[in-house]
Specification:
Largest interface: A-B, 66 and 71 residues
Shape of chain A: elongated
Distance between the termini of chain A: 23 Å
Oligomer: heterodimer
Order of helices and strands of chain A: HEHHHHHHH
Structural class of chain B: alpha+beta
Order of helices and strands of chain B: HEEEEEHEEH
Largest sheet of chain A: none
Strand content of chain B: 15-25%
Structural class of chain A: mainly alpha
Helix content of chain B: 25-40%
Distance between the termini of chain B: 81 Å
Amino acid sequence: MATSPTTSSRQRSTREPAMGKRSRRPVSGRMVSASDLAQMGRCERLVVFEQLYGSRRTARQRQARARGLVEHEQFYQEGIAASAQADRNGRCFIATCLFGEAWQTEVLRRFRDEALRPSAWGRWVIRLYYRGAPGICVVLRRWPALQVPMRVVLGAIATGLRWWSGSCGGGKCRR
Amino acid sequence: MSALAWGVGSATAVVCFALVMAWRRSLETNAARAEWALRPAALRDAELVYLEKLFRISTPVGLVAKLDRAYRMPSGLLVLVEFKTRWSNQPFLSDVIQLSAQRMAVMGQTGQSVASYGYVMVKAPTRRALPIPHLVKLMTDEQVVALVRRREDVLAGRALPRWPLSWKACPTCAFRTQCDYPHL
């Protein structure tokens, strides 16, 4: 189970807007984006004007926006570097060690976050795991033959969890 | 002679490659240090868990939100951080609304608990300025839902749009010629 935090978001999806979070086109159906909603706190009349005439910006606003995007990108890169460093220095975890960034790792990570973390006993299990996992990773690297049975076992668990979360509607049956 | 040239060339290439890798690693380390140093003090022990990640919910209202960053405290609680570049070093109501909507989307999609407070990191738009964190109290889910409903009402013409609380943004607004705000 890898703790590698940002990995799911590290590669930004091409479907997502690049940096600016306010979409130029209306969000499909009745969805509203957090940034569009935030406009309500700025000026409600502006929300109406943008609905009627589309988004309009003065030259100064366009400049400020371009500057903001550059700063935002730097903020993002710092976050990426920090999480990469944490991965290197910190806790190495078995699924990442065995599968890399594969779907098995993602399923196990989701299980950790959505099923274990909300409860006290789950957090206790996670703490216990965090304590033992780095040592296990060292052993697995030293004796690669052990990786095969471990991969089979963890792969079976991940498949089971994927089936379970699929049949429960993405873990929503928990609530 | 040609073997010697090959040897020297290969050695130079290897040294250059090693230097580039070391330079890249040092850049990464500096960026990671900067990230840690600029965190709000309360998040020093926290783990960075989400970066620029999109969350969406469809009930009780359709909401899509992209986080700048989320940190997980040792207790398991998520704390949201929003980054803003502006001259005015203070959080605005719009930042609070944005973070509150993000909080609702994260809780709705993942079921994880998210703190009722968040941080707005405000950075002046200059190269040397450092982002300054501001702690803000977030709106409740009910308040966010009410705001989404109000937005729908305003856009559908069922409610009149209110004037802004402050007219400071008006002089730079692209719609000021159409607007009949008394200060303009």
